[in-house]
Amino acid sequence: MIRTLASRNVRAISRIGNGSKNLAIRAITTQTVKQSQHLRKTVTSNFLKPNRGSLWSSNLARQYSDLPSHIRVPLPALSPTMEQGTIVSWEKKEGDKLNEGDLLAEIETDKATMGFETPEEGYLAKIIVPAGSKDIAIGKLLCIIVENQEDVAAFKDFKDDGAAAPKPKAASPPPEAAAPPPPPAPVAAPPPPPPSAPRPMTAVEQKGLSAAGPAASVSAAPSAPQGGYIDIPVSNIRGVIAKRLLESKQTIPHYYVTVECQVDNLMKFRERINKKYEKKGVKVSVNDFIIKATAAACRKVPESNSYWLDKTIRQFDNVDVSVAVSTDRGLITPIIFSADRKGVVDISSEVKALAAKARDNKLQPHEFQGGTVSVSNLGMFGVKHFCAVINPPQSCILAVGTTSKKLVLDPENIKGFKEVNVMSVTLSADHRTVDGAVAAKWLQHFQEFIEDPATMII
Question: For residue 76, how far is the Cα from the chain centroid?
Answer without folding.
Answer: 17
